[in-house]
């Protein structure tokens, strides 16, 4: 039985309990054929001392949405997925509202996957752009 979009998003958010994603209040919001979106509130919880969004929190959001995209779009009955590299370019600061992440596959191979994750603010300004490489390895039988 295939899950509805709403059920899949709900299940994805549910597995984030007691994890970094819950700590940062990351919420998965939507997905399509080759992308997944999430949002994170910009509050004191994710500030650097200057009162703006910490780059590490931004990267945690990017890795979370990119890794979950690989989980959703690969056959997890046969493989497990791990992030192996991430890079980020921070372009603009933000101190309130939400940041929105959208992970899109650049390459969806059997072993490695490459995703581009754009982080934007509530006004669709580009805050950061990240690239994440994941690897899918066979589960031992």
TrEMBL record:
* Gene Ontology molecular functions: hydrolase activity
Sorted keywords for this record are: Hydrolase
- The answer to whether the entry has keyword Transcription regulation is no
Q: What is its EC class?
A: hydrolase
Matching InterPro entries, A to Z?
HotDog_dom_sf, PAAI_dom, Thioestr_dom
Write down the Pfam families for this protein, in alphabetical order: 4HBT
In this protein, which residues make up the domain named Thioesterase?
51-126
Q: What is its EC number?
A: 3.1.2.-
Q: Which Gene3D superfamilies match?
A: Hotdog Thioesterase (3.10.129.10)
Q: Tell me which family the UniProt entry assigns to this protein.
A: Belongs to the thioesterase PaaI family.
- Quote the protein name from its UniProt record: PaaI family thioesterase
